[in-house]
Amino acid sequence: KCGPDGNFSNGEILPFGPIALSPSAGENAVRMKNGSDRMCMPAPSVEQFVDAVKQTVLANKRWVPPTGKGSLYIRPLLIGSGAILGLAPAPEYTFLIYVSPVGNYFKEGLAPINLIIEDNFHRAAPGGTGGVKTIGNYASVLKAQRTAKEKGYSDVLYLDAVHNKYLEEVSSCNIFVVKGNAISTPAIEGTILPGITRKSIIEVAESKGYKVEERHVSVDELLDADEVFCTGTAVVVSPVGSITYKGKRVEYDGNQGVGVVSQQLYTSLTSLQMGHTEDRMGWTVQLN
Ligand code: PMP
Hints:
CATH superfamily of the largest domain: D-amino Acid Aminotransferase, subunit A, domain 2
Mean pLDDT: 87
Low-confidence stretches: 1-16
Distance between the termini: 24 Å
Helix content: 25-40%
Radius of gyration: 19 Å
Structural class: alpha+beta
Shape: globular
CATH class of the largest domain: Alpha Beta
Largest sheet: 9 strands, mixed
Number of helices: 7
Bound molecules: 4'-deoxy-4'-aminopyridoxal-5'-phosphate
């Protein structure tokens, strides 16, 4: 098999670069632990988790695309199972990691995405499971996402379920709003996923002199922003070209929809991930 862009060939052992487990695989392990506590499941320890990721990647070296041509997507999963009818935590658990080569998310480099705010759908409610990475969370976004895609949008931006006014996140990424030298992103208060890329980008942005605020960010601020971008493992840093809200479309100028700040942060993070710049953050782990 090959990646979606067909950039690498079947079975060939390819040059194997550093893998970015930012800001250390421990962050992902801790997030799984928090999620598994919420789901009444046992979780592997940080050491077991990190070791399993390393072993899985090494055992699948042949599928690692050459630097710049794509990535080896790593998905650790904890599954509950067993013979039980009632509503109760599962009696048995399986921890598995699957990997898949993927091409670059955007073949032409950075490309702006067009989001719609769907205020009839909510992704998470206070006290719910929105703050942890559990598969059930994705059930609530399927319909909204499909409807948005049918209308030509890239994805849906969700608002908080209490006021229907503050930004939460997109179906599978976190959101940032740029105004002047300030970058704002919704605070982690239990309804949005604490993205590892979100955390990395906050550190990278601060190291570049931006003022980063984690707080409530309103739709009005979003529509008045200079630039908007999303972050996630798959999308890395993804500039937002337009937002549609209550039938009105706001476009962000930038350079063909790619703002200066989004471009700068994207370049910084990907250069670090690919080993093109020195990793002063200690986020990358060399496996061979
Ligand atoms: N929010 C949601 C709902 C997600 O599924 C993801 C992707 N994992 C993110 C945010 C971004 O998180 P990360 O940067 O850890 O990939």
